[in-house]
Amino acid sequence: MNIKGDILQIKNKRDSKHQDIQIQIDTITYITHKKDGRYFQPFELIDNLQNSLLLTGDQLARSDNKYLEEGEHEFKVYDKAGDNYELNPNKHLLVTLEYDFDLAESILTSVEYSVTVSTEEFKELQNRKNLPKGKDRRNK
Prior knowledge:
56% strand
């Protein structure tokens, strides 16, 4: 996880002038809701990426969530399709920063990138993650 640029400049509306801001993401959390008895329960699968995912500031807009802890910043994520940007309601980014008064700068403490998927996609991701790698894969 790494951030280049001032992520606090991003406001509630998506803007192309923030394309210089870059966020490297190392893990993705896939979330689905399955019926467990009477109620739907959230299930998650954490995927550690081999190659980091790069999001730019022009794909982000700050969320209106008022219930965040101090230093937490939640963002809506837009997908880029050609020259157009489309809001993807299934993707969310939560960034936690701590301010260091001695250095007079903000320090990145965590990045949580979550994607909500259907139950079928979630099962596919689980099966793909559980496949053995290398020589063991051929033996099974």
